[in-house]
Amino acid sequence: MSINEASGVGAFHQVAATLRDEIARGKIRQGERIPSARELATQHGVALTTAVRAVDELRHEGVIETQRGRGSFVRERTELFRRADQRYHRNPAGLAPNRAESAAGGWLDHVEAEVWRENADTDIAERLGVPEGDPVSVVRYTWSVDSHPVQISTQWEPLAITAGTPIEEPVDGTRGNKGVIARFDSIGLHIDHVDETTRTRMPSSDESQRLSIRGGIPVFSIERTHWAGETAVETANIIIRGDRMALVARHDVPKEDQ
Question: What beta strand segments (E) does 146-254 contain?
Fold first, then answer.
């Protein structure tokens, strides 16, 4: 790839993007050595310092790892799969979907939680169907796999529903805690559908910091709401690193139109 100096994108970002693409397409496989900074500088016609910055960017993202005296190699890591169909259901353990997926996939995952309360702003009030300014509980979960942050989920629940009940406080990240469906089942509100809208975009500066993202890595941005009939009981903004997660789905095709 030749560097396009008129693109407005830094030369080291362009070199890093080329390497990232070669890794994604399997041209350089997991466990294989990438070209040295000197080799990259020659290949792309850039200064050695530019090539070094490109390698540093991929190392910071966790795409590669450097072994002293041997060079830099593509990190071996498990691709994560998020079900886009039949994701929300009542499982015997009552686990949140991502914890059920991690258990099924054998991922070494960890969740940290920050919990607080606030008054619903215009957007959250509209999504929950409550007056603007109504009190809501808020929890932000940071989900890490193999010690690397992969997903941030910020979730709001109306205290008009949960206050004074056993689920007034959102659960922390302890393994085995119940997910949204099981929690609301416990107070007699049975969720019957979940709406999700998924978009892709570039991360904000705060999201980049929380997910350790640098360079041109996009995120999945998901807006989700749990419903019990016509009542919205929870809404969430979910941000997932686009380079770590694949969305998978199975769609059954009926033999005849029904």
Answer: 148-158, 193-201, 219-228, 231-241, 245-248
